[in-house]
């Protein structure tokens, strides 16, 4: 659904309010949630050993992620700094804010995995995935930090970006909302899992088109390649969250799920079309908002909810990027960029 920019936030807030009216009733339905009878969460005496595999699809997802390992040495940033200096002030500002947003989001994800999910989930196969994901999140964090450190030379600006959750209101808004959900002792595991899927599928993946759009001129090859690698990982993390959700016996009501996803859409649209203004790099704010809605509808469907926005994908190149991550050629490219095997490629 294409809208004038001035109506983007009004439309998102209207949709959010529609579901917010019913949220109380959904939360009431969740008050009887009992982790002791939830298959994924109940005490599992055999959680200390892996075999025999009970959840084949969860184990398969873990092995798929295991096969996608990469490290920051796979990314060459030598030419990026020269390209960075040739960019406009608006383009540099845009990339800086995107990296700050992504770094903050990633840090919150890691904390949630370490402090809550990896301790709550008692299924061995899922614990294996979370253990590997924590390592991958560390790689993402290191990559974001290296990108900021490489591009930003002014110490004050660098400090602002590193502490974005305190120095940037738009990033703080995102962080406060996510932390409210994942630290809430009254929120059910299912509600927090939906929030986690929203962070991965909307916040982290939603920023990818803007970087891809900006780098389509053949500039910033290191940023582009790291963007591809992280995009692939985030897609897998979103898929895993949805897979675990499908295994839950006690799921949140559809109104609660929809409310969480729609709130994430509102925050992401505000960040990209109001706080950051993707038009600074030649992107349409309306199309960017539409893409976020498209991603949200797809996520809602995976979580068993009907689509809310019914928006189409305005960026065909994102479909190509998704397919690229599934090809053997892409995997070979990753392996050949890994420092440990590069001489043999």
Automatic annotation (TrEMBL):
A GO CC term assigned to this protein in UniProt: cytosol
Entry-linked Pfam families: Ribonuc_red_sm
First and last residue of the signal peptide: none
PROSITE patterns to which the protein is assigned, alphabetical: RIBORED_SMALL
Any GO BP: deoxyribonucleotide biosynthetic process
Gene Ontology MF annotations: ribonucleoside-diphosphate reductase activity, thioredoxin disulfide as acceptor
Assigned protein family: Belongs to the ribonucleoside diphosphate reductase small chain family.
Protein name (record): Uncharacterized protein
Species the sequence originates in: Acyrthosiphon pisum (Pea aphid)
Taxonomic lineage: Eukaryota, Metazoa, Ecdysozoa, Arthropoda, Hexapoda
């Amino acid at each position: 659904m294409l809208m004038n920019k001035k109506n983007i936030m009004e439309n998102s807030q209207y949709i959010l309010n529609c579901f917010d009216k019913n949220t109380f009733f959904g939360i009431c339905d969740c008050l009887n949630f009992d982790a002791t009878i939830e298959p994924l969460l109940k005490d599992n005496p055999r959680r200390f050993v892996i075999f025999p595999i009970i959840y084949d699809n969860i184990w398969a997802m873990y092995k798929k992620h295991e096969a996608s390992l990469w490290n920051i040495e796979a990314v060459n940033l030598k030419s990026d700094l020269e390209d960075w200096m040739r960019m406009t002030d608006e383009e540099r500002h845009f990339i800086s804010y995107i990296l700050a947003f992504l770094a903050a989001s990633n840090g919150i994800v890691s904390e949630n995995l370490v402090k809550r999910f990896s301790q709550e989930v008692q299924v061995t196969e899922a614990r294996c995935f979370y253990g590997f994901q924590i390592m991958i999140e560390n790689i993402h964090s290191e990559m974001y930090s290296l990108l900021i450190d490489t591009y930003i030379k002014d110490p004050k600006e660098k400090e602002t970006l590193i502490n974005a959750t305190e120095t940037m209101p738009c990033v703080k808004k995102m962080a406060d909302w996510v932390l409210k959900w994942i630290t809430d002792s009254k929120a059910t595991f299912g509600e927090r899992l939906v929030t986690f899927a929203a962070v991965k599928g909307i916040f982290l993946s939603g920023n990818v088109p803007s970087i891809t759009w900006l780098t389509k001129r053949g500039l910033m090859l290191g940023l582009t390649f790291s963007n591809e690698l992280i995009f692939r990982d985030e897609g897998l993390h979103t898929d895993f969250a949805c897979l675990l959700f499908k295994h839950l016996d006690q799921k949140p009501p559809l109104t609660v799920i929809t409310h969480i996803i729609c709130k994430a859409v509102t925050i992401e649209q505000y960040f990209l079309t109001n706080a950051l203004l993707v038009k600074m790099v030649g992107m349409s704010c309306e199309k960017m908002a539409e893409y976020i809605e498209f991603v949200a509808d797809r996520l809602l469907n995976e979580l068993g909810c009907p689509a809310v926005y019914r928006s189409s994908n305005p960026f065909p190149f994102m479909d190509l990027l998704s397919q690229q991550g599934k090809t053997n050629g892409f995997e070979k490219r990753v392996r050949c960029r890994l420092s440990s095997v590069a001489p043999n490629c």
